[in-house]
Structures are given as structure tokens and as C-alpha cells.
Amino acid sequence: MASVRTRLAVLGSAVALAACAQVPVQLADAAPAAAAASYDWVALGDSYTAGVIPAAGDTFEVPRDGCERTDRSYPQVIDRDLGGLFDLTNVSCGAATIEDVTSKAQEPIGRHLPPFAEDPDYPFPPVPPQSEAVGPGTDVVTVGVGGNTLGFGDIVFKCLELGSGSGGAGTPCKDELADGIPGRLAKVSRDYDEMLATLHKRAPKAKILAVGYPTIVPNDTSKCRYNDWGQFGPVTQGDLDWLRQDVLEPLNEAIEKSAGTHDDARFVNLYDSTRDHSVCDSGKWVEGIFTSFPDQPALVHPNARGHRNAAEQVETAILNAVGVN
User: Fold this and answer.
1) Is 26 inside a domain boundary?
2) Structural domain that includes position 100
3) The pTM is what?
4) Is residue 5 part of a domain?
């Protein structure tokens, strides 16, 4: 990617020099025309796209709409990287489901997460379905969504509750919830297919990039310390293995499979590049239950380093999609 950015920087310098060469023939009071972006890009998704937590930067919406887009989330990082090549519309929103992207108005929650945190601006007015930001002129759509349709947050909370009395032994969460996971994954697949069809209908010429989820739980769960709230708190090692193998990896597989059935869609794999940066790794790119206990809940979300990595993967995919490589 360095070579692409270098070429873009050189191109920008050449444009600037050309503009300067024209100054003598401009009227003294004429403002230079802003260069139009080459491509229209719409970013859709949930909190793993929006950023949401302080470790992913500062919110920049004024006034706040409750979606908690942060300035170090990957759409904003890419927007800065690529300068004026893309005109970004970022309507990603924390807690969004696939239906919220496709067709349903969403009531954002901001940072209102009782009992962990109260948001003084809550409740927020509904925001339109994210797909409404996509239109015939859209060239690229990135979408990272599916975890809330699966109910991953609810699953984690249940694992916290059930693990708290376990002493770290057994698989209490798996024992209670495993039977319902196939049905949840089936709903993800159905909703994802409907979403991709809707996006194609709204933007027939757009390239759609379906962004997967990063590694959250390591392959070696002995790295995860029981009752460490900077990691997974009281979730047992056995339940963490189950979450990785039977919940999170199948979620990515469902998204990849759905993208593979649509000619205009491509899957962006974040999992492989983040294998050594899980919640339980020393160089983690995803925060645990808390960034700082007990005053800064993170509830298992990527930090700025995780978003920087996502930006690198998604940026490459975007440039390939539009033929800039």
C-alpha cells in the first residue's frame, strides 16, 4: 500500500503545481475551484465500523446522533489516507443490525450502557436505514455488520453471568446457549443476502465490500486470565474456545459465503491479519470488557490499532475494486 499512497501523493503534488502555474491568469478575487472526488464511497456497518469506544478515538458528530462514529475508526482513517480520491459518506452506527442497514430505522444508544455507563444525551432520535445513503451514483459500498443480528453482545453478557460462579471451570455458557446458535447464524445469512440484494438494487454499478470481523478470542485461550476485566472477565476458558470455534468463526464464514453468492460483492478478511492481536494478546487490537476498570467499558471492541489494521485491509480492497492499484 505504500506505493499506492506514494503515487497518490505525487499525483496530488502535480495537481497542486499545475494549479499554481495557472494563478497569473486567474482573476484576483476568484476562489480556486475545489477538485471533485473521483469516486463516491458509502461506509455502512455497526460499532466495529463506527468505532464507538474512546480507545478508537473521539466522536466527531455535532450534534451527536448517538451512532458514536470516532475519528480513528477505519472509514475515517482511509478517508485521510486517500485524500480527495473518494467522497466518503459514513453512516455506520453502533449497535446496528443487518436490518438496520437494509430497511429499519434505528434508535441509537450512544454510550448508554447501564449498569456500566449512562449517556446524558440518551435517548437519541431514530436514524434512517443506512442503505438510504446508497444511490445510483455510488461507486463503492463497504459494510461491516452481522454481530448484532447474531446477538454477540447478549451472548457475551450471558457468558459473563454464567461464568461468574464457575471458578473458571467448565462450559456453562455453551451448555445453555449452544442449541440456539445455528438458528442465529441462519438468520444472519438470510438477512445478509437480503441486504446485499437491496444494496445492489439501490446502486447497480457499485462494488460492495463485505467486511468481516477480526480475531477476538485467541486460538490459545490459556492466554486469557480468569476474572481479568481487561480481557473477558469471568468467562471460562472452555466457553472462550466455544465462542471462537462455534460462534465467531462461523459468523465470518456466513458473511463470506453470502458475499460469494453475489457477483458485485467481495469479502474482506480481517481475521487472518489479526490472529496475534486478540483481546488476550499483549499487543491487542481489540479491547476486553473494560479498557480501564471500572470506569471505561469497551465491551470487546477494536481499538485504534485494530482500526488501523482494518483500514489497511479495506483500503487495499477499495482501490482494487475501482481499479487503482
Assistant:
1) no
2) 37-321
3) 0.89
4) no
Task: Check if the beta carbon of residue 122 is closer than 8 Å to that of residue 68.
Answer: no
pLDDT in tens, 28-41: 343 344 456 799 99
Q: Give how many domains the chain has, as a whole number.
A: 1
Q: What is the 3-state secondary structure (H, E, C) of the chain?
A: CHHHHHHHHHHHHHHHHHHHHCHHHCCCCCCCCCCCCCEEEEEEECHHHHECCHHHCCECCCCCCCCCEECCCHHHHHHHHCHHHEEEEECCCCCCCHHHHHCCCECCCCCCECCCECCCCCCCCCECCHHHHCCCCCCEEEEECCHHHHCHHHHHHHHHHHHCCCCCCCCHHHHHHHHHHHHHHHHHHHHHHHHHHHHHHHCCCCEEEEECCCCCCCCCHHHCCCCECCCCECCCHHHHHHHHHHHHHHHHHHHHHHHHCCCCEEEECCCHHHCCCCCCCCCCCECCCEEECCCEECCCCECHHHHHHHHHHHHHHHHHHCCCC
Among 7-11, 58-62, 147-151, 178-182, whose mean pLDDT is lowest?
Answer: 7-11
Domain membership flag for residue 21: no
CATH number at residue 289: 3.40.50.1110
28 occurs within a structural domain: no
Residues 258-304 pLDDT 10s: 999 999 999 999 999 999 999 999 999 999 999 998 889 999 999 99
